[in-house]
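Folds abound. A case:
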Amino acid sequence: MTLVTFNDWNLESEVSEAIKKMGWEEPTQIQSESIPVARKGKDVVGQARTGSGKTAAFGIPIIESCDPNGALQSLVLCPTRELAVQVAEEMGNLQGKKGLRIETVYGGTDIEKQAKLLDRGVDVIVGTPGRVIDMSKRGHIDLPKIEIFCLDEADRMLDMGFFPDVLWIVEKMTGRRQTLLFSATFPQEVLDATEEFTRDPVHVMSEDLEVEVPEIDQFAIKVGRINKMWALGRIVANMSEGDQMLIFTNTKRMVDMLDERLDRQGVDSAALHGDMAQNKRERILDSFREGKKSILVATDVAARGLDVDGITHVVNYDLPDETESYVHRIGRTGRMGRSGQAWSFVGGSEMPQLDKIANTWGMTIPMVNAPELPDGSKEMARLKEDWDEISDCFGMVTVRLSLGSGDASKLALADWIVDQARVPDVAIGEISMGDSESTVEVHVKKASYVIDVLKSRDFQGRKLQPAIVN
């Protein structure tokens, strides 16, 4: 097969020169499949992860389609300000000396200063949904004039709750003639959006997306933040001699805190994160590879390139934000034909994310209790009452009351609880009335107080006998 090079596409001279300066010769797979199609003005739906070269995949066609005349022609939406800055910088490099004004628009910066930059004239905007909406409502962004729209990392937009904002923006872009949509994964909501946003799109997929899901035992424990240490202690206590565990957290601060807590319990663990000097990181990795340390606590970034065949347990102390990260994490165990276990700690509000992970990769992740403590072992931490373990994904706790439908109406009961407990109306959720019992949803932040009130006061001369429904 003949390899395609950037020279084969006869790109604009400014773009071609910029690519040469960057030292690029051959396009990545997502670029070679997306750029020719997008340059023809067709809609593109691309599946590619961060680091696959997707910014150039949509950036080059956008740059070539825009003129440096100070009139807004294209909008790229990103989920975070960091990504918006990164995309704008790369597009700035890719355009070379073409002279397009590419501005970033995101929250957390002076809105008046940003407005002045936009009012001076801009050709391409790279921004986050919230601030783009603010600026359009203030009259600084003319959405109907935009001809090319790109949605980057659509699945993360969905995760972060931005999709209603994205839909609002899309509906206002009445002059849109081309849409480019990129996502690492395609949950059903994103698939639905591709049909709504695009017209006869060409679908392209990068082969490096194929992720092999390891055949290991996977479990999830519903546990709140307070009791994670207790659950971890149970799993550690059940490890056999020679086993090794890799624990993932989402922040460097949590890595240090957890390592310190394990150390206080007499567990010989080590911590690994990006702020450490390279030589220290190497020493820690060597001691783990050689089996001198049985437990390593790390972030995703720090664990990149970690290749240790002896890992028998992976624990997601924090559930990852991205579904792909989960597969990469659990793939650290069960190597070389060995058996492996992956455990995930999931709070009530994180249940939808666990479902998304399982559905994306076609996995079964059963919810189980923490393992029993072996004879002669001590608990690493005491089990405490934690509301997050019994709340649902909306943060509501269900309370059963000894009150039937013949005793009161839902409205009367709700009004009485709000009045007696002095809580806002929104703290009380769904009320279901049975013949002799009823259930009331109470927000987790008010649950403890509301239950105390229900225990101590009579409703129309009756004891309510509140009990939590697990």
Remarks:
- The first helix runs from residue 13 to 21.
- The chain has three domains: 6-209, 217-384, 390-468.
